[in-house]
Design goal:
Elements: H1 9-21, H2 23-34, E1 43-48, E2 53-58, E3 61-62, H3 64-68, H4 73-76, E4 80-85, E5 94-97, H5 98-114, E6 122-125, H6 131-143, E7 146-149, H7 156-165, E8 170-174, E9 177-179, E10 182-184, H8 186-194, E11 202-206, E12 220-222, H9 223-229, E13 239-240, E14 244-250, E15 258-263, H10 265-278, E16 286-289, H11 296-308, E17 312-316, H12 327-335, E18 339-342, H13 344-351, H14 356-359, E19 368-371, H15 378-388, E20 395-397, E21 432-435, E22 441-442, E23 447-453, E24 463-464, H16 468-476, E25 483-491, E26 497-502, E27 506-509, E28 512-515, H17 516-523, E29 529-539, E30 543-552, H18 561-575, E31 584-587, H19 601-608, H20 625-632
Parallel strand pairs: 4-17, 6-7, 6-8, 7-14, 8-11, 11-12, 16-17, 16-18, 18-19, 19-20, 30-31
Antiparallel strand pairs: 1-2, 3-13, 4-5, 9-10, 14-15, 15-24, 21-22, 21-23, 23-25, 25-26, 27-28, 29-30
The structure holds 5'-O-(acetylsulfamoyl)adenosine.
Length: 635
């Protein structure tokens, strides 16, 4: 029996039982057999969820890029590592082999060194989905610098906040980016951000769009001339298992975004092992994940997991709607994609278009379909299954988080029978639990509760950058000795899990996690706004859209409401980015509040969803009369 490659259901159960009975043996075997180490570990696992402190493979030494690149050179040097599909379908795709990837990463790593970047320094990466994004991520890992990739759709303010929080010394960006018919002036967003980031010493600029940009003397440097000069050999920095690999920011329900810190060995082992099994990757497959590397899905399942397995991984620069809604399926046919991994929001957007866009293309290369990011509704699941998978490619509905580093609850294709809207069974090594209101574990099947994980797995984030206390409070304080996910879930009669959504104030819009607090903070900066509350409401493409309740100051009451709405969305765009814009804005005289002054979002959510039949007991509110008023004026 091979633990590494699970092929049928009985094998899954055997492997799973073993992983729970003796987790350390289980992970040790996988780590021994499938990776290259400069030195083996002294202990497999040391952990304490109440401190909290988690250490995997302590004492081991390695470099993750040696595992993702160098070790494949002998047997797979000429195999395509990265298949780059540009925004413009008339621009040729690029096949970057493992040999070329090795040279590009080494050169880039030497450029970082020549610019004074050392082990442990933080480097912010703000790039579109072009090969240099992957090169720069791996170049950081090569020399032990900590990368912090910021999604290139974020605004200057959001970028500056993230740069300052982790005190990045360098930013890597481009002159511009292509998105469908648009060219975005990325560098000027960076210029604006860098006005408020004293820690940045250097900006490296990749040429992509040939846009006119300004280059600040002494700070900004074009990448290409530096690459041309750099040597293509760079010895990997030998890292300790628990040395930081990267920081990735994710929104919380309150306050600043959280800089989740992932470390080296455990993250590598877990992303590689999950990639192999969840996508059943075989040697000649061409795997495509449509996420952006700016999110955890891109880190784990475009870059590290696939490359650690010597896979061919596709990077797509564009959008699903350009030049038309058939683009994804055109790419599937063109590159004979075998595994396709996307988000429910993309599926819903494509499902509302004519089927001709799908039927024009030959999708027979597909073997496995995946989804991630939010619960997939039944309708979207069936559309995907019928029209893309032709009822023969299993759909893996993969539940996981930025914090978990890798996939946690998922079917294993061809082993686990799938069930629409269910992420099904825990991956080997994952011990989920459902908790009730009193913090007790709910045993048995056909139950629902708050989803926790009882035992560490190798890819769990180790801390929040600069704020271990917040890490402890957010994830390890709600339930004793458990990691709390923030999600609710139910377990059906055979033990399958269905994730029902967040139980906190995080709203998932088109697969992006948005905290309500930072959006409210942005709105409240408008001079006419007194107070605001944001809730999510169901939206048939985005999954959830944002609904804002806004109380105006007296001075704002005479203003044109549509102008105000535009200005509010403008402020949100500046502070967070266009993904956080509100679909609906209702002006109101008050908000329902508890006596301690907490806004009752539960009530606002129901009103926004037009579901006011059962609002629960409102008599304990400070101001129960406001509820009727809000309902009367709902949009
Ligand atoms: C990978 C990623 C995490 C949150 C998570 C859930 C939701 C993700 C699923 C899902 C239902 C899924 N990381 N979520 N996958 N909900 N089914 N298959 O998305 O940090 O950006 O978001 O996303 O609420 O807590 S994330």
């Amino acid at each position: 029996m091979s633990n590494y490659h699970i092929k049928h259901l009985e094998e899954y159960y055997q492997v799973y039982r073993k992983s729970v009975r003796n987790p350390e043996n289980f992970w040790e075997e996988i780590a021994e057999e499938h990776f290259v180490w400069r030195k083996k570990w002294d202990t497999v696992l040391e952990w304490n969820f109440s401190k909290p402190e988690i250490k995997w493979f302590k004492g081991a030494k390695l470099n993750i890029t040696e595992n993702c690149i160098d070790r494949h050179l002998l047997t797979k040097g000429d195999k395509t590592a990265i298949l780059f599909e540009p925004n413009n379908p008339d621009e040729p795709a690029k096949h970057i082999t493992y040999k070329e990837l090795h040279q590009q990463v080494n050169k880039f790593a030497n450029v970082l060194k020549s610019q004074g970047i050392k082990k442990g320094d933080r480097v912010c990466i703000y790039l579109p989905m072009i090969p240099e994004l992957t090169f720069s991520v791996l170049a950081c890992a090569r020399i032990g610098a900590i990368h912090s990739v910021v999604f290139a759709g974020f605004s200057a303010t959001a970028l500056a906040t993230r740069i300052n929080d982790s005190e990045c010394k360098m930013i890597i960006t481009s002159d511009g980016s292509y998105r469908g018919t648009k060219t975005i002036d990325l560098k000027s967003i960076v210029d604006e951000a860098l006005e408020n980031t004293p820690c940045i010493e250097t900006a490296l600029v990749v040429k992509r769009t040939n846009s006119e940009i300004s280059m600040k003397k002494g700070r900004d440097k074009w990448l290409q001339p530096l690459i041309d000069e750099a040597s293509n050999s760079c010895e990997p920095e030998i890292m300790n298992a628990e040395d930081p690999l990267f920081i990735l920011y994710t929104s919380g329900s309150t306050g600043m975004p959280k800089g989740m810190l992932h470390t080296t060995a455990g993250y590598m082992v877990y992303t590689a092992y999950t990639f192999k099994n969840v996508f059943q990757y075989r040697d000649n497959d061409v795997y495509w994940c449509t996420a952006d590397i700016g999110w955890i899905t891109g880190h784990s399942y475009i870059v590290y997991g696939p490359l650690a397995n010597g896979a061919t991984t596709v990077m797509f620069e564009g959008v699903p709607s350009y030049p038309d809604f058939g683009r994804f399926w055109e790419i599937v046919e063109k590159h004979k994609i075998t595994q396709f991994y996307t988000a429910p929001t993309a599926i819903r957007a494509l499902a509302k278009e004519k089927l001709d866009y799908v039927d024009k293309y030959d999708l027979s290369s597909l073997k496995v379909l995946g989804t991630v990011g939010e619960p997939i509704n039944e309708e979207a699941w069936h559309w995907y299954n019928d029209n893309i998978g032709k009822k023969k490619s299993p759909i893996v509905d993969t539940w996981w988080q930025t914090e978990t580093g890798g996939i946690m609850i998922t079917p294993i294709p061809f082993a686990t029978p799938t069930k629409p809207t269910y992420a099904t069974l825990p991956f080997p090594g994952i011990q989920p639990a459902l908790m009730d209101e009193n913090g007790e574990e709910i045993k048995g099947n056909q139950v629902d509760g708050k989803l926790c994980i009882k035992f560490p797995w190798p890819a769990i984030a180790r801390t929040i950058w600069g704020n271990h206390q917040r890490y402890k409070e957010t994830y390890f304080s709600a339930f004793e000795n458990c990691y709390f996910t923030g999600d609710g879930a139910l377990r059906d009669e055979v033990g399958y899990y269905r994730i029902t959504g967040r139980v906190d104030d995080v709203i998932i819009v088109s697969g992006h996690n948005l905290g309500t607090a930072p959006i409210e903070d942005a709105i409240n900066e408008h001079p006419a706004v007194a107070e605001s509350a944001i809730v999510g409401f169901p939206h048939n493409i985005k999954g959830n859209a944002l609904y804002g309740y806004v109380i105006l100051k007296e001075t704002g009451e005479s203003r044109n409401q549509n102008n105000l709405r535009k200005e509010i969305n403008q402020i949100i765009t500046e502070h967070i980015g266009p993904i956080a814009k509100l679909d609906k804005i209702q002006f109101t005289k008050g908000l329902p509040k508890t006596r301690s002054g907490k806004i009752m979002r539960r009530i606002l959510r129901k009103i926004a969803a037009k579901d006011t039949s059962n609002l629960g007991d409102t008599s304990t509110l400070l101001n129960p009369e406001i509820v009727e008023d809000i309902i009367k004026n709902v949009l």
